[in-house]
């Protein structure tokens, strides 16, 4: 009787194992086939053209590292975005100091530069640094020396337009005693390719009128960005000094690892940090996040009004969303209208008065 039961148990185990194998083979075959998931999510509407380029690469089976670098370079090269790359707004000494980072979610390689001047594409320097085992985060002159040695393109990143904004700001400061921190949008992205590799990257000129040498969250792993191909990735934008206090991008990945959907993870991370900062310090700066998990599911959250993001996946065409924070901390998303998109470009390109 007992022998019989043991035989049955053994048989059941074999059948279950067999079924598991079949399921795994079917999944693997789906991944091998045409419908392998890929995707990309980025902070702010300004990322949309870059994300479109990156998506083309991912669709064709391209690598998440190449796609994210291409996408961010597109934003860095566009002169009318005042907070990233060429045309970025200067520090209080009228110098454009840039921060950027890159992370490979397969190997956990990280590369970053901070306060780098006169190089066209900081994200590419960061990615190159990510291949180093040591010395992979470099600042200012050290970063510039490395970029020079590696043959990266030198460029004066201070445009006449940025100078005009600077002069206008100096005058306003005298007249109205404005606080220096306004007009800051970092591009942060998370990418998933068809092979299941995930990457995260950021690029920014940081805060307008920042002190020389100031470093924000964007080149700091775990704060401005994080990616783990086994789980997902996240990237942040807002007031770096506050985003860093919660290591917020890592926190989102950690929450996703616990099983939370990217949307829940983003909302929880923003709400918790916002509440902690208000309770302990009386105020919280701008905190906004985007995230994607290894299945291509995405999420975003913010504690401000007016946060926009760009998303594309194998299942969803490129869309710019406006995130709306509800009273209870949840976020809803509205597709940006054509009017909104046109207006965005018009205001970015309007003459400096
Ligand atoms: C910084 N987090 O340097 C960046 C700025 C930013 O939207 O994201 N602005 O603090």
Quick recap of the structure?
By secondary structure, this protein is of the alpha+beta class.
Rounded to the nearest angstrom, the radius of gyration is 22 Å
Structural class, by secondary structure, is: alpha+beta
Beta fraction of the residues? 15-25%
Treating each run of at least 4 consecutive H or I residues as one helix, how many helices? 10
Low-confidence stretches: 21-33
Number of strands: 13
Spatial strand arrangement across the major sheet: 4-3-2-6-5-1-11-12-13
Q: How much helix is in the residues?
A: 25-40%
Assembly annotation: single chain
Largest sheet: 9 strands, mixed
Small-molecule binders: N-hydroxy-L-asparagine
Identify the overall geometry: globular
What gap, in angstroms, lies between the N and C termini?
92 Å
What sequence of helices (H) and strands (E) makes up the elements?
HEHHEEHEHHEEEEHHHEEEEEH
Mean pLDDT level: 90
Structure report:
- The protein is α+β, with helices and mostly antiparallel strands and about 350 residues long.
- The protein contains ten helices and 13 strands.
- The protein has a nine-stranded mixed beta sheet.
- Strand 5 and strand 6 form a beta hairpin.
- Helix 2 packs antiparallel against helix 3.
- The chain starts with a helix and ends with a helix.
- The structure holds N-hydroxy-L-asparagine.
- N-hydroxy-L-asparagine binds next to strand 8 and helix 7.
